[in-house]
Structures are given as C-alpha cells and as structure tokens.
Specification:
Layout: H1 4-50, H2 81-101, H3 112-122, H4 137-151, H5 156-198, H6 209-219, H7 227-237, H8 244-251, H9 269-280, H10 283-304, H11 307-318, E1 327-333, E2 338-344, H12 345-363, H13 366-371, H14 374-404, H15 418-443
Antiparallel strand pairs: 1-2
Helix pairs in contact: 1-2, 1-5, 1-15, 3-5, 9-12, 9-14, 9-15, 10-12, 10-15, 14-15
Length: 444
Amino acid sequence: MVDTNEWYALFKQAREKKQEWLSRVRIPELKTKFSEFRKTFAILYFVLLQKNYIMKDPYKSETPVGDLKVPETRSFFEPKKREEFSLRLAKYDNQLEYIVTFYDFSVDTLKPDKIRIMRAIIWFIEWQNLSLTSPSLNTQAMAEIFFNLRNRAVNKILLKNLETCFDDLYTVATYMDKILNEINEYQREAYKGNIRSSIIANMDGIATIDSIKKKFYPLFPEEIFYPEIVQELLDEDNSPDANVREDILKKLNVTEYAKPIFEETVSLKPTLIEGLNALCSTVSTFREIIVKIEHNHGVYRRKNRSIRKAIVTLFKILFKKKQTADFYECEIAGSFSSRVKIINHYLLVKKLNEKIKELRTITGSTTKLEKMDEEELLNYLSRNIRDIQKHHRLLAALDKFFRTKITNKQKNHIKGMRPELTTIKNALSKAVVKYEYYLVTRKS
C-alpha cells in the first residue's frame, strides 16, 4: 500500500502518459473518423436531396456555425414536418463540416461538456435502429422516409446504397463513441486529480461538495464545476475498498499496440501535394476578396468621413504625410465563444497578398514539392491549412462587419464575400481530408 504522496506522484506520471497518448494517437484518429462520418452522411444527404425526399435549404451555405451545438430534437409541427426535418438535416451537415474543417481537437478542448455534445451529434439519428416507434423523433422521421422508399419498391440499388450508408454511419459512430468514452474517462480522472491535489490536500476538516465548490472557482475560474464528478471523488476517498487507488491508476493505463513492419513503404507524398493543390485553387478567390475589401472599405470610409476630414486627408496625400491606418472592430467566432479583434485594413490586405504570392509559388514549383520529403510536405500543408483557416475566420468577421456597420442607404453598395468564403471553406475541407488521410494511413 503506497502512501498518499507516493500515490500522487504515480497518478501524475500516469496522467501525463495518458494525455500524451491521447494527443498523439486517439485524438487524430477521432478527427479522421469524423471526416469519414461526414463524407458518408454527405452522400446520404445528397441522395435524399437529389431524389426530392427532403427539401433544399436555400440558405444552407450562408448559415454560420461557430461552435458545437446539440441538434434539434423537439417535436415536429406535423403539417411542416418534411420542411422542418429537411432544415435539421441541412444544419446537421453544416455542423459536421464545421467539426471536420474548423474544430480544434485537443485534450484541452474535449472536456466532459463538449464530449456530451459530440455524442449527441453523432447519435442525432439511431443509425442502425430506424424505427417508427423510436423515442428519437429524428430517427422516426428518417425511418419514415426509408420505409416509404422500401414499401414503394423503388430502385433496389438505391435502397442498398442507403442501407450501406446507415451501416457505415453506425459503425463509425460506434467507434467514435468508444474514443470519446476513453477521453471522457481520462478527463474525469484528471479533473478529480486536480481537486485532490489543489483543494482537498490543503483543506481543513471534512471535504464536501459545498466546501470544495467554494474553493474551486478561485483556483479554476475557467473550468466548469461538475457536482456528479466531485461526488464520485468523495465516494472513492471514503470507500473502505483498499483497491480504489489502484483502480484509478488502471483507468489511466496505456496499451501500445505493435505496428506491423512492411518491407516496402508506399509513398504518400502525392496525397500531401493534392492537399496543397486544393489550397492553391483559392488564389483567384483571394484576389476577388481583396477587390471587394477595397471597395467596401471605400464605402465604409465615405460613411464616416466629414468634408473637413476629407480635406485633411487630401492635404496629407499632397504633402506625402503618413496617414493613420484604418481599423475594423470585428467579432471573431471561436470554438467556445466570440471575441472582439481589431483588424488593421492595411496589414490584412498585405497578408492576403503575401499568401497569394506563396500559393502561386507552390503552384509553379511542382518539381520543388516532389523533392521535399514527406515530413517537410506535411509541415508545409499543416501550416498553410492553419494560415488559411485564420484568414477565413477574419474575412468572415469582416464580411459581417461591413454588412452590419454601414448605413441602410449604403448597404446596396456593399459587396458580400459569402460566395468566396464558401469556396475557401470547400478548399480547406479538401485539404484537411488529405492531411488526415495521410496521418491515419501513415499510423496504420
């Protein structure tokens, strides 16, 4: 039986090892599985849309998704059931695209509250239990569509393809649920470990949920207080079972599986180059965006410029005096919440031009890319994905700024950037798929 200090040391060592393993192995695997899940659902959604079994959402590409959100589960208004279910599926497809393209998968972000939402997302429909009597109203709605198709004895190949989609979605969702459960178990033990070492170890008297809660927020102001996890901690610490501490360490055990050794390694460089080419396809789109930014900037400046300011600016230009930079106060959508960011107009346009120049260089240097090894290509693709994701977030915020901060009279003069933002988003999605395919293939 180890003493308390020795056990804390063993716990810390086991937690760090588990965190490293989750970050290196399981979380990249979860990202890849989400990508597979999204592609399979996209096929299902496309078929239902093309065959007119659901209605098209004309605003689907314009609906912003800034965070994880539990899908709608309320009752349908029966006369508009088909329309409402169609909108739910459109929002669900957008949510999956956001997760695959923009969500920050990491041990720090996948806390119990986010894991709960992710589980609700993947089980939005009971994929292998389509039933008209299911407690899930969304499952009932999907079952109604599928059973109507089957009863009408339409294209058997179509029915087989839909059944395959449901089977694949169930298989991938089950696998993702297993990974999420593993991450959740780690998060619960890490959460309890932090409370034990930072609060209970320095507490006088008997620890209770209320006494722990009083000390919790000053020490962990950005964390959520989970009473059920704290109660689990107290039950463990007060348990007469001598093996409780050993059981906790067992939960943090890591089992590494030996990888098969292949005599011949297949090069995956073409996959990485395809990902870079997908990003390079945005060059003309970024040029169009710069033109629109400059145009909208002019409209915005006219809105805020008096005759006196215009004369002062004219004199500065004539006498070549340095002008004050123009700034936009924009709201940036993040993984958890929005934040305000000051965007410098001059620096933004400059960085966009620099990115265009870099992407053009990639396009014209196929030989150079082929000479790079896989590690260099992987880092190059990863950096460009991050850069363009950052540009996309800033440009989306700027587009919203121009549409909301202008007078009604001048709104007709503003040029929206949504079509270009959608093009960039699609290119990012393709590049991310290639990046994740490389990671999972290289690890297999």
